[in-house]
Amino acid sequence: MKATYAKKRSESDTATKCDEIALLWRQKGNDKFRSNNIEASYSYYSKSVTYANQTGPMYPLALANRSAALLRLKRNEDCLSDIKLAISNGYPSELRHKLLLRRADCLIELCRTVAAREALIEAKQHAATLKLSMSHKGEFDRHLCDLEKKLEVVKDVDRSEEDEIPDFYMGENEEFVSASNALQLKRSKAAGRHVVTKKATKRGDVIFSEEPYACVTLPNEGGRLVCETCCRTDINTVPCSVCSRSCYCSETCREHGLHTFHRWECPGAQFDLFPTIGIAHLALRVLLVSVSAGFPQLPLGARTPTSASDLFNGYANVDNVQIYTRDTPPFYRMFNLVTNFDKMNSTDYIQYALTATMLTLYLENFTTFFDDLPDKIPYTLNKSQLRLFSASLLLRSLGQLVCNGHAALSLATIEEDDAKAGRTISEREVRRATAIYPSAAMMNHSCDPNIVNTFYNSRLIVRCSREMPVATEVFNCYGPHRSRETTAQRRAQLRAQYMFNCMCTACLDTDRKDFVSLFTAYACQTCKGPVLWCGKRALCQQCHAELQIDRALSAIEKAEDLMDQAERAATVEERFEKAHAAYKMKQQVWHRHHTSLRAAADRLARIYADSGEFSRSVELIKQNIQSLEYQFGSFSVEVAHELRKLSDVMLERLINLPQSPEYREWCLEAHKIIKKSIQLMDLNYGSWEPLVKRLKEQESIVASLLAHSRTPEHSDTIHNNLHYNLKI
């Protein structure tokens, strides 16, 4: 792999640094910038920054070019960071006056007037030390004059925004680190270690807030970059100084990542090792993080270890509940997570052992890991035992992560071009990292969980999804959920990965064991009840009539053909007529909660909204919300997204039909829906998500529309603001 990947792979890509490639991307960026394609120029300049040798002249030039694109994109804080980096990395003195003016421009945009004046003075003083030509001096003076005029009309305002991280409900628990004082960690023979409430909680209460012991970032949909250290998304990249495969959100995160793990991972990143080993990358990261922090002493009274086995047994010989107190080193909590090795088949176990061995050989042959390790263990072990200890810890971590690992999720803005639906911009959940949270891992599984997981960068914040009385067990969902799979499917998945037979309340509820079958059921032609397969026959669950499945499939085929005709219709009227007829035909065939019927309603709602029939669109989306509430619950993430969609259409209606006699009622309804959408999005994702912030801006604007709905003289300004803020 090293021979194949750790070299220049093409004229535009290399695993290390190459100023030729950096120049290529910078020139591409210049072309896009000149043609006013700023987004593309930013992307190309970022590639130039990534590939440039950081001790050479190309790196500061690439940073300066990227700062110009960032200024145009109104990403002023990132622009300031790039300017600072460019100057500190030797940006040419004869060009620096332009960069200093750009910094002043950023500061003016941020309304930091004092700092902006200082930046203008510095730019003027630096320009005075240069022998500028008459044309260059004239250009500089004009730009300086423009900025001084711009500064005169700006008031000093602090526009920096700090995300507010919610506090623990009832404060942090000293006996259960990273957990709320409302919780207690208990142990029993039947449930093992588990979490219960010792105080009553309500929906939205924060009961865990935990940074991961270790995490690794994942390739993101749409090429969104994630900081290797803190998992922040959509970053302005600061690359590793050696390889071109690792990126960070700041120099601070880069230095922390280098010290904690990347000094030993950089060679593997260069020859593309980590994408091939899956969860084993996180197991390696656990080992590296542990070594970086240093292994703790064994508990008092333990005998001094002379072998890897002695040290392993010493770390395991603890009270696995008491190790969750605040004064216990974090390594003990990580080391004592369960592995399920005793239930694993030998083939998987051998595969994990071989992977651990291979990674140990990687550390030995390609890094300084084993030179650094002896100083990080508080006991003397020979070289052979150090290798054995490292390989054993890798193997143990692999077993732990398979049943304790956690995907870190976030909302991403995805642009799609669909032949039928057109260009769509939507928010979607994406996995940005895999991580291990030892405290949150103490929650047992239920297919009907009572918590919601949210993520702020790498931090896991767990909230209650419903009220919980005292002595209620707190349940997470390990994946299979009662709203998405049947009992048999859920149990099979849990046995395959977690090796237990689920006995949660949802799995024991025989009345609802086929609940999810409703969402793929046909409609009975006699009573409209759900029709499910019973052996080889499709029977109504209410009147037991048999469905003629061939007729149903034929009707769906005709409906799809009608919808295709609607998409190609020459007039709006014909499009409405055929799309509506297709939907009505599907209503006759599918049960009212069928997921495909919801998709058909959504498609028709889109056609109505695109054509200005907003009220019709609103009614269809409301219908879908009722169905989603039935399947997932009123506070689910699925309902949150549908409410968000409903609020968008309602806002469009307000913008396009301001003279309607129903305008005030529409304002009232839109305001109510947006507030509900904010509540659910905050619960499921957190107030720090950009989408939640945009919804709050829209709520404020609709509140203004509502307040001024009887004073038309203010309406134009408010409508302009609404157009500016609306993302649909």
TrEMBL record:
Residue ranges of every copy of the SET domain listed in the record: 181-479
- Give the source's domain of life in one word: Eukaryota
Q: Which residues form the MYND-type domain?
A: 227-266
InterPro entries hit by this protein? SET-MYND_domain_protein, SET_dom, SET_dom_sf, SMYD4_SET, TPR-like_helical_dom_sf, Znf_MYND
Which CDD domains would you find in this protein's record? Answer: SET_SMYD4
What are the annotated GO cellular component locations?
cytoplasm; nucleus
Alphabetically, which GO biological process terms does the record hold?
A: methylation
Instruction: Spell out the reaction equation it catalyses.
Output: L-lysyl-[protein] + S-adenosyl-L-methionine = N(6)-methyl-L-lysyl-[protein] + S-adenosyl-L-homocysteine + H(+)
The keyword Phosphoprotein belongs to this UniProt entry's keyword annotation = no
Q: Which GO terms of the molecular function aspect are on file?
A: histone deacetylase binding; N-methyltransferase activity; protein methyltransferase activity; S-adenosylmethionine-dependent methyltransferase activity; zinc ion binding
Q: From the Swiss-Prot or TrEMBL record, state where the protein is found.
A: Cytoplasm; Nucleus
SUPFAM superfamilies for the chain: HIT/MYND zinc finger-like, SET domain, TPR-like
Tell me which UniProt keywords the record has, alphabetically.
Answer: Cytoplasm, Metal-binding, Methyltransferase, Nucleus, S-adenosyl-L-methionine, Transferase, Zinc, Zinc-finger
Q: What is this protein for, i.e. what is its function?
A: Protein-lysine N-methyltransferase. Monomethylates PRMT5, modulating its transcriptional activity. May also act as a histone methyltransferase. Plays a critical role in cardiac development. Acts as a key epigenetic regulator of gene expression during cardiac development via its dual activities as a methyltransferase and negative regulator of HDAC1.
Stated name of the protein: Protein-lysine N-methyltransferase SMYD4
What is the source species?
Answer: Bombyx mori (Silk moth)
